[in-house]
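ASSEMBLY PREDICTION REQUEST
Request ID: AP-0331
Submitted by: J.K., bench scientist
Number of chains: two
Total residues: 312
Priority: normal
Notes: Please return the full assembly, not individual chains.
Input sequences:
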Amino acid sequence: MTDFLHMGGYGFYVWSAYGGAVLAVVAEIVAVKRRLRAARDATRGIDRSGVT
Amino acid sequence: MRDSTLRTKSHNVNWFRYSSPVSFYPLASALAPWFAVPAALLAFAGLYIGFVLAPTDAQQGEAYRIIFVHVPAAWMSLLIYLAMAFWSALALGFNTRLSAMMAQALAPTGALMTFVALWTGALWGRPTWGTYWAWDARMTSELILLFLYLGVIALRQAIDDPRRADRACALLTLVGAINVPIIYFSVQWWNTLHQGASVSVTSAPRMATLMLSGMLVMALAAWCYSIAVALVRVRSIILERENNATESPQLRGMATRVAQ
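STATUS: Completed
Returned structure:
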């Protein structure tokens, strides 16, 4: 496992690359879901601004 | 005679029906999971091939494993731009609202893929070439691609009337499309630090089968992911636009129905 994380000395580069990519994808998925929910709420006339 | 005409009609799906945003909305909802689930499965399989099955590269060691995300993201950044240009051309040529919405839905995902390509490329370049960044033709043109995506997004936000924004964004997208062949051929046209293509349609790939298959599975995952995300985003765009009071109140009623 340690070997795997070490990546033959390139661990920092490999995991930063994948970490950044995963972060970007997760952020986009969250953003896209939130936007759809907000749009559906607005269409139905629901105001969730008071609810967190 | 009359009967057979009717029968033919009822068996034909009227595809033009789906060029209307409100009719397309439920289709987009139904299609999205068919791309989202394969995207997750393919990404899992691709990473398994890339990290567990594929051997260590003789020259680059383990650092080469970055290509399993770098190359698919870079391909996708170009393909999404081409798709965006296609929808923009339709929007300009036929004045269709849904095409413009599709182009709008693709821009943020295109920007994301371009960012991922640049980010992972920098982290691969440092151990391989000794630098995170160089102003060579491939990297500079890919950076311009990121600015084009961000420019299209910013332009839309700067224009209040959505129909005018559609036309302006479509025009900018089509003018910017010249950058796509420049990126693709940059490694042949100029002497770049970035290496030439290891995979091409016309010749045998210059890499191990397992490395290549890991990359191709990840590329398929990127396709499915992009389509799924764009389908969800286009639904938001349809609703947001129909909610806009300046657009037809009749469509607003229909939007309320489909959002239930």
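REVIEWER COMMENTS: The mean pLDDT of chain A is 89.
SIGN-OFF: pending second reviewer
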